[in-house]
Amino acid sequence: SKVLNKEMRPKKQRKCAVIINCGDLPRHVENVSFAYEILTKNLEIDPHDIYILDSNRNLSYSVSDSSTRKGIFSVFDKLGKVYEPSLFFIYVTGHGDKGIIEREQNEYVVNCITDKGNKNIYSLDRLPIGKSVGELATIISLNGPVIVDCEFKDLLSKVNSRQTVALFDQCFGGGFSKVCGSDTCIAISGSTINQFSYANFFPRVFFDSFTYEKADCNPNDGRISIGEAFDEASQYSKRESCQLQTPVINGKNPYEVFLR
Asked: Per residue in 122-135, pLDDT tens?
């Protein structure tokens, strides 16, 4: 597995990527492999600069850490000490949910009501900065304490990147896209804050779009921008999900940002 340590020589002006698998289904593992292949072969990100976090067993790829709260925070802390990249790409695949932050006995939790009226209760490591009891929060579901949308924004800020692109394919990912999008971060989700994500409609076509000539709407540059890849995948996703899934993009100038 790839190991980061603070004694490594700083890597400036290089592209780097993090892939986080928070899922336990075969499709989530396939998403990681597919994303890795596109990032390395088509988008020319050095394999040594791609870090995978995954808690599943018997994987075909090596991992840098587990996809637990502790593992994710550890890798981002170390990346911030090693990298000052020209472009930082993050892909999160797996399960997500949304609910109300509550205080139960001696801990904070996110209490989520499913579409069938059932309860899912997720533990928080602490009350997230910027959130209050009784407030709505979207999460990525992990083994153990989860990560809330505003906490992920803080994670992204640990890496001093000229441009960040974050892709979230979990259910209710629009919450993460809204919170994380900024002047220097284009944040994309496969669904709105109120929608489930279905199968692999959005992420697969998003990554595949970088290999489609027809996705390039500006023949003068000969490249496919983040905005163009989003448009291609968004149209496909909405069509295949019968309009039940609407991808979201937040951030500045997505048609002027390129992964290659």
From this structure: 999 999 998 999 99
More confident residue, 240 or 145: 145
How far apart are the C-alpha atoms of 206 and 230, rounded to whole Å?
6
Please name the residues in contact with 109: beta carbons below 8 A apart, sequence gap of 6 or more.
Answer: 101, 102, 103, 121, 122, 123, 124
User: Which residues have C-beta within 8 Å of that of residue 26, sequence separation ≥ 6?
Assistant: none
β-bridge mates for residue 258, sequence order:
225
> Cβ distance 140 to 94 under 8 Å?
yes
Helical H segments across 4-84, by residue range: 26-37, 69-82
Asked if residue 133 lies in contact with residue 103, where contact means CB atoms within 8 angstroms, the answer is: yes
User: Do 170 and 138 form a contact (C-beta atoms < 8 A)?
Assistant: no
**What is the per-residue pLDDT across 206-220, written as a single tens digit (0 to 9) for each?**
999 999 888 888 877
- What is the pLDDT, as a whole number, of residue 140? 96
